[in-house]
Amino acid sequence: MEDQGASVVITHHIIKGKEQDYEEWLNEISPMCKSSTGFVDWQIIRPIQGLTFVYTVIIRFNTILNLKSWMESPQRERLIEKAATLFAKDDNYVIKSGLDFLFNPDSEKPKVPARWKQYFITWSAIYPLSVVIPLAINELCNTCVLEEIVLVLIRAFSTELNTAYLWEVCSTLYPFS
Q: pLDDT by residue (tens digit) across 2-25?
């Protein structure tokens, strides 16, 4: 496994207004990285202007050892210290072998929305439907003549819990022969 290719995904949250300084810093560190033993590729994913401030740099080396050697090198440490004033957060990177870098790191847990948001979204969908659908079916009961059509509509637009209630309302208001 030590001789597999390795990738590092580096994320830098840049302070607003410091993007040009960071670009200059990238131009300074890039040649040093590219001249390191085992270097394969360097890609920069720039932030969407005005929306995000996160730069993602993906660097590939031929082995994990060569990659770690670069990431822990005094040259890189010196340049990271120089750029520290540009970062809103610390230098953050994850080293993976092969194509593992395409997936979320194990340390990152999925973000779960707040309970009140889940409650709000659920009820903003369920409540209007539970009010509108019975009204619509009631109107259909007013105009429908055939019992089978009403039954099909009730089954299609309501849950098992509401079916008996809707059937009772329709049959009470408009008894079928």
A: 566 888 889 999 888 888 999 999
